Amino acid sequence: MTVDAAGLRRAVAGIFAALGLPAAASGVVADALVDADEEGIASHGVMLVPMYVERIRAGSVSLATAGRVVRDAGATAVIDAGNALGQLTAQQAVEIAAAKAR
User: Fold this and answer.
1) In this structure, are residues 57 and 70 in contact, taking their beta carbons and an 8 Å threshold?
2) Could you say which architecture CATH assigns to the domain 5-58?
């Protein structure tokens, strides 16, 4: 079966937005999941959506859009993701690392 990637991104983002995740964050998560499928890494793709929905509803995955920096030591930092979605905290970590590299 072939699925339109843009439509799938919108659908997945809509699911996360309906759960209460802000639109921008929902888009980041949807992009990461659909990108994984497009790259042939289904284990990190949209097949995870039902699990995420279940865990968000159960409260074991947070709707936080970023983690908390618990240690910032010059060239390094440690983030406590607080059970937020990894796609969001990974983006946060990359942004922190890029700022430190500058």
Assistant:
1) no
2) Orthogonal Bundle (1.10)
pTM value is: 0.92
Domain residue spans of the chain: 5-58, 68-101
Rg (CA), the chain: 15
Looking at residue 3, its pLDDT comes to: 87
Which 8-state DSSP code applies to residue 62? B
pLDDT, tens digit (0-9, with 9 covering 90-100), for 35-58: 999 999 999 999 999 999 999 999
DSSP codes of every residue in 46-101: GGGHHHHHHHHHHTSSB--SS-EEEEEETTEEEEE-TTB-HHHHHHHHHHHHHHHH
